[in-house]
Specification:
446 residues, Outer membrane efflux proteins (OEP), 9 helices, alpha+beta, 8 strands, two-stranded parallel ribbon, four-stranded antiparallel sheet
Length: 446
């Protein structure tokens, strides 16, 4: 058995390794990644389930006021039957004496079916009305979840590209610096350069190598974050088909700044409206508890006095019974409990109305902030792009001057540091344009 278990385990590990080796990479553009995430993201999946659950809850509420049929079957076997004492004179005995008597058979079998129908219940009417509001809330919550999923995918996609393109730039920078370092070391060995010049380039090279290692690790982490956001396994071999330049060209839409803002289309506003509807129906429900409730029922049953296995046989002694009835419940006095409940519901409704006004003002402010942030992001991108071109020219000139002995190592290092800063700012400005555009769209909800 031990060798069998080892063999099975080995086969399982081989199959796992084979499946991992043959796992096909999947390539995504940004929109393809968003579309995939909306189907496979864990939060999106649960939001869909919440909507289905709301639809089932709606029917559960409706069904509670429709006819309900229940059945019951009972069997009793009196192992020791109760004994009653009756006056003995009923049987010809002496007055004052009692005789023990057992009433009824030892075994009883009964089966009943009951039909119940609700005729009037104020809380049921309010419940039916509230199901529409609850469904609306579930749909809006699903829309909010989709917005959050889209935002998370856009950020993860951009951060992954940022790390990847940072690695590419750093590799080019290291190649150029290491070349300068090698040439300077040869010059120093031949007494044509100072040791400080070598040390300056060594510092620059070491810093670039550290940044490269950090960005390579960051590239792996950001890709894992993107996989999780999309609903893929953590280490799935995902490929990105777009770069930051393409995304910036795609996401730079100045006309979006002039788009009309319709408050009623904003999902946050719709959710607060749902809260107001919920509080309104809670107030109606509290008031409905002061109304009477009326229910009707009818049942039919048969009781047999014999062995249960002969209950349906001919000649069995059994008797039918049936009842038709109505239940009317009238609330009379609750020690002001219902009044307190109604007042609390009123307070909750007023708080919801205040929250709706606050949300309107906050959304107006968020819209202005989002428009300003998007405008600034586009302007910063254009400035960073121009600054990068200038920094590249300055660095090239200083490299030439340094190789000809006109510029010092300090001048070269300063130009290189300026270039590396411009590169980081340029890449970050592209990511900011993409993220700010998504934030503005979430508010406008065009």
């Amino acid at each position: 058995m031990r060798f069998i278990r080892i063999g099975i385990l080995t086969l399982f590990l081989v199959q796992q390794g084979y499946s991992q080796q043959t796992e096909t990479p999947v390539a995504f553009s940004l929109e393809e990644a968003v579309a995939y995430a909306l189907e496979h993201n864990y939060s999106a999946i649960n939001a869909d389930r919440d909507l289905v659950d709301a639809e089932k809850q709606k029917w559960e509420t409706i069904a509670s006021g429709l006819p309900q049929i229940s059945g019951a079957v009972s069997y009793q076997d009196q192992i020791k039957q109760p004994v009653s004492l009756v006056p003995a004179e009923f049987f010809g005995g002496q007055p004052g004496d009692f005789e023990p008597v057992v009433f009824g058979p030892p075994r009883t079998t009964s089966a009943t079916a009951t039909l119940k129908q609700q005729i009037f219940d104020g809380s049921y009417i309010v419940g039916i009305q509230a199901t529409k509001a609850f469904l609306s809330y579930s749909r809006n919550n699903q829309e909010k979840t989709e917005q959050e999923v889209r935002r998370a995918v856009v950020e993860s996609y951009g951060n992954t590209l940022l790390a990847r393109q940072s690695v590419d730039l750093l590799e080019k920078d290291i190649e150029a610096v290491d070349k300068n370092l090698y040439e300077t070391e040869k010059l120093y060995e031949n007494g044509l350069a100072e040791e400080e010049e070598v040390e300056q380039l060594q510092i620059t090279s070491a810093n670039l190598h550290n940044s490269l290692s950090s960005n390579r690790r960051l590239q792996e982490i950001t890709l894992q974050m993107l996989n999780i956001t999309m609903g893929l396994p953590l280490d799935h071999p995902t490929e990105l088909t777009q770069n930051l330049d393409e995304l910036v060209a795609q996401e730079t839409r100045p006309e979006l700044l002039d788009s009309e803002f319709v408050m009623e289309n904003n999902v946050d506003y719709k959710l607060v409206q749902n809260l107001n509807e919920q509080r309104f129906y809670e107030l109606k429900l509290a008031r409905s508890r002061a109304l009477p409730t009326l229910n009707a029922f009818i049942n039919y049953g048969r009781t047999g006095f014999s062995d249960p296995f002969s209950y349906f046989e001919s000649g069995t002694q059994s008797f039918e019974s049936s009842i038709l009835g109505f239940d009317l419940s009238i609330p009379i006095f609750s020690s002001l409990g219902r009044s307190a409940s109604t007042q609390r519901a009123k307070i909750a409704l007023e708080k919801a109305k205040t929250e709706l006004k606050e949300t309107e003002q906050k959304l107006e402010l968020q819209l202005d902030q989002a428009r300003n942030a998007y405008t600034l992001a586009i302007e910063t991108y254009e400035t960073s792009k121009a600054n990068l071109a200038l920094a590249e020219r300055i660095e090239r000139k200083n490299t030439i001057k340094y190789s000809e002995g006109i510029a010092s190592s300090f001048d070269l290092r300063q130009a290189q540091t300026q270039l590396y800063t411009a590169q980081r700012e340029y890449l970050q400005s592209m990511v900011d344009v993409i993220n700010r555009k998504t934030a503005l769209e979430n508010i406008l909800n065009p």
